[in-house]
Design a protein that fits this description.
Pfam families: adh_short (PF00106). The protein has 314 residues and is α/β, with parallel strands linked by helices. It has 16 helices and 7 strands. Strand 2, helix 3 and strand 3 form a beta-alpha-beta unit. 33% of the residues are buried. The mean pLDDT is 91.
């Protein structure tokens, strides 16, 4: 064990001559990772939805000339094909070392309020977007015996009311990644999953909503069932939770970097503060009745039941 410990510390990764392709670099984790990897000496291909936007132009200003911004909408096959051509034509001597599937969107809503179109939209970015930006690059990563990194979420294995659409997509990403990891291990490729907790206050991936915004989207049936008083309570609760999220984005970036450069990277990186990590580690193993009780006993759930169930009975 001591030998392995010292061996790991002695293996200093050299990023020179290696490229990394990152999706979702307009803001959030992707933006910060692009800057970190550029500073380390990687050739960074930063995929941005808006290459002329402030996020992309900030990377151009603050990073070295080695970083290249590429216009990529992960829902469009043509964009991904064009990105591959650009990367292949600009590969350094050691090839494409890593692909970081970071692009994603989120939203919150009670399951009943969602439409099938909302499920399609989020799945096309979070799930099929990750698949779309993985399949064409497998040969390049296999050639370098590099890394595939996927950004998932604690919500892939911890269910939370109001976030069913997001959870569905992230749980599916984990299933795809698990299969891919076993298959690519044959070729010396390592596949890692990053599972951040609540970093919404710094990434802005989940925006705050106003009660009126939700009410105006309701059909007549929903307006009869869910009153505006309840909407104000639930939006205030969710918005408060978003503001209380972890603000240390470097925790996630450090995990991403370790997944890319460590000689023995983790399969999964659960990233949150210590207390939350302990809870989230235990939660999936709890009996369902015990896990459900965390929500049933919460103040917001009791208010929901008193306001909505009593109204239905009447």
């Amino acid at each position: 064990m001591l030998f392995l410990l010292f061996w790991k510390k002695s293996c200093v990764f050299n990023p020179q001559g290696r490229a990394v392709f990152i999706t979702g670099c307009d803001s959030g984790f992707g933006h910060e990772l692009a800057k970190r990897l550029d500073h380390m000496g990687f050739i960074v291909f930063a995929a941005c939805l808006f290459p002329d936007g402030e996020g992309a132009q900030s990377l151009v200003r603050k990073c070295s000339s080695q970083l290249k911004v590429i216009k990529v909408d992960v829902t469009q096959d043509e964009d991904v094909e064009q990105a591959k051509k650009i990367i292949e034509n600009n590969l350094p001597e050691k090839g494409l070392w890593g692909v970081v599937n970071n692009a994603g969107i989120s939203d919150w809503s009670e399951t009943e309020w969602n439409t099938i179109q909302q499920y399609h939209k989020m799945a096309d970015v979070n799930l099929f977007g990750s698949i779309r930006t993985t399949l064409p690059f497998i040969p390049l990563i296999r050639a370098s015996e590099g890394r595939m990194v996927f950004v998932s979420s604690i919500l892939a294995f911890v269910y939370v009311p109001n976030l069913s659409v997001y959870s569905v997509t992230k749980r599916a990403v984990e299933a795809f990644t698990d299969c891919l990891r076993v298959e690519l291990a044959t070729f010396g490729v390592k596949v890692c999953i990053i599972e951040p907790g609540n970093f919404g206050s710094v990434t802005k991936v989940l925006r705050e909503k106003a009660a009126e915004e939700i009410w105006n989207q309701f059909n007549d049936e929903h307006k009869k069932m869910f009153n505006q008083e309840y909407l104000h309570i639930i939006t205030d609760y969710v918005n408060t939770q978003l503001r209380a999220g972890n603000k240390n984005v470097n925790l996630v970036i450090d995990a991403m970097v370790d997944a890319l450069v460590s000689p023995t990277p983790h399969t999964r990186y659960l990233v949150d503060n210590r207390m939350n990590k302990r809870f989230f580690f235990i939660f999936p193993y709890l009996p369902t009745c015990v896990a459900d009780s965390f929500f049933a006993c919460s103040g917001i759930y009791r208010k929901r039941k008193s306001m909505l169930f009593s109204k239905q009975v009447q």
